[in-house]
Design brief:
The strands form four sheets. The protein has a seven-stranded mixed β-sheet, with helices on both faces. It has three domains: 74 residues, Archaeosine Trna-guanine Transglycosylase, Chain: A, domain 4, CATH 2.30.130; 111 residues, RNA methyltransferase domain (HRMD) like (Transcription Regulator spoIIAA), CATH 3.30.750; 191 residues, Vaccinia Virus protein VP39 (Rossmann fold, 3-Layer(aba) Sandwich), CATH 3.40.50.150. The protein is α/β, with parallel strands linked by helices. Helix 6 links the parallel strand 14 and strand 15. Helix 5 runs parallel beside helix 6. Bound molecules: S-adenosyl-L-homocysteine. The site of S-adenosyl-L-homocysteine has 17 residues, from helix 6 and helix 9.
């Protein structure tokens, strides 16, 4: 087996050694996986992207080892902290097995789309691996993985035996991946056959296609699976408005759960076309066939605030992140409250609402209280059914990784 991502740098150079501020030492000891550039106090030489950096503490004792990234404010992504040990092929294999083991027993044959590696929270900082049936999608969020990419792909192929592996690159590293002699492309097939038809997988028995070559994230929003299941269980007999629908995930779940109608509302015509195909894919299911499916292409914020007076028995609000930066946090909280208020106005008596947030900069409590406040301001009586957090295949072990929250309310 090829060795997984060991430093690509000429072996003759001395090991890249770093010392960091006292505060950063504490963060590392408490398990935080990032070392920011401005916490680096000393460095024995320039490092190259993806080489292994070893961090020593003030007593010159080993603190951690991680991937060095000279192009990112996150200068080192910690792979291992604690006692010194060799990050050799056996170590990498054990890391992959541990991530796979964490998903053991979570899914039966009715769910073949889920996350196998969730970045830092699984010990693979800046890397995600999603499974869509026999197609695996490896997504990189840092160029530091590129030098060791062949080794990683070999490891995944040998241990998990997918039919194919597709490489996806976050937008900010696509140029770096194509240039600087790396020749890596977003959507490249790392092993297995080319993608010639839609990649279809199952989620709780529902068939979906994933746009693994070009779609957002890795082609589907796997992180909302548990909320979709919940919506399915509550939707019987209801008319559902699925705002920010993407490819209709919530609508299909609602349809399968016996919803009377499902309206997908999204800005993107591609997303709505995918939603239509997903309904087609499940047309032999009597519940899906019996659900009237409609699509509305519009800006959901404007559409919900606008003059349309049709009311729904279930409104799902799952907008994209409204705070990409800390500075946008307060505005995002106001926008969530406004959106919830507009959603509530569209609800029939006894209407249900799911409001979701994927903004890491807005905490769960901030989000929940914004929605509760909007519910209170509506003047209608309501009960809170439940709040939800990360699905078990999307663990979040540190604050910055903790982004997903949902709240279910029922209005009389
Ligand atoms: N609920 C979906 C995921 C939503 S992702 C699921 O379960 O799969 C967010 C979606 O919001 C994307 O499809 C994006 O096209 C859409 N979007 C972004 N801005 C929008 C806007 N202003 N109005 C409507 N849709 C928007």
């Amino acid at each position: 087996m090829k060795s997984p991502p060991q430093p690509s740098v000429a072996e003759k150079l001395p090991r890249l050694r770093l010392r960091v501020t006292a505060a950063a030492e504490n963060y590392i000891r408490s398990g935080h996986p990032w070392v920011f550039a401005d916490s680096v106090r000393e460095q024995n030489r320039d490092g190259t992207s993806g080489e292994l950096a070893v961090i020593y503490d003030r007593q010159d004792k080993f603190l951690a080892a991680g991937l060095f990234d000279p192009d990112s404010p996150i200068r080192v992504r910690v792979l291992h902290a604690g006692k010194p040990l060799a990050l050799d092929a056996a170590w990498w294999a054990a890391q992959l097995d541990a991530a796979a083991r964490r998903r053991d027993g979570l899914f039966d044959a009715r769910t073949t789309g889920y996350r196998l590696i969730n970045g830092e929270s699984d010990g693979w900082p800046g890397l995600a691996l999603d499974r869509y049936s026999q197609t695996f999608v490896l997504k990189l969020y840092t160029a530091a993985w590129l030098p060791g990419l062949d080794g990683i792909a070999t490891l995944i192929r040998e241990r998990l035996q997918p039919e194919r592996i597709v490489l996806r690159l976050s937008r900010n590293i696509q140029r770096a991946a194509e240039h600087f002699g790396r020749g890596r492309r977003d959507g490249e097939i790392l092993c297995g056959p080319a993608v010639t038809e839609a990649v279809v997988f199952l989620e709780n028995g529902i068939r979906f296609e994933a746009d693994v070559l070009r779609g957002q994230k890795t082609g589907f929003f796997l992180d909302q699976r548990e909320n979709r299941r919940e919506v399915g269980e509550l939707a019987r007999g209801r008319e559902v408005l699925n705002a920010f629908s993407f490819s209709g995930g919530f609508s299909l779940s609602a349809a399968r759960g016996g919803a009377k109608s499902a309206t997908d509302l999204d800005l993107s015509p591609h997303a709505l076309a995918a939603a239509q195909r997903n309904f087609q894919l499940n047309s032999t299911d009597p519940a899906v066939a019996g659900c009237r499916h409609e699509c509305v292409q519009a800006d959901a914020f404007e559409w919900l605030a606008g003059g349309d007076t049709r009311k729904y028995g279930f409104v799902v609000l799952d907008p994209p992140s409204l705070a990409k930066r800390e500075a946008e946090r307060a505005g995002a909280i106001r926008a969530y409250a406004r959106l919830a208020g507009d959603g509530i106005r569209r609800l029939t008596r006894d209407g249900l609402m799911l409001a979701g947030s994927c903004s890491a900069h807005v905490s769960a409590e901030e989000f929940f209280s914004a929605v509760r406040q909007a519910a209170g301001n509506s003047g209608r009586r309501f009960v809170e059914l439940k709040t939800t957090r990360h699905a078990p295949d999307h663990p979040a072990t540190f604050k910055e990784a903790d982004y997903l929250k949902g709240i279910f309310l029922k209005f009389s």
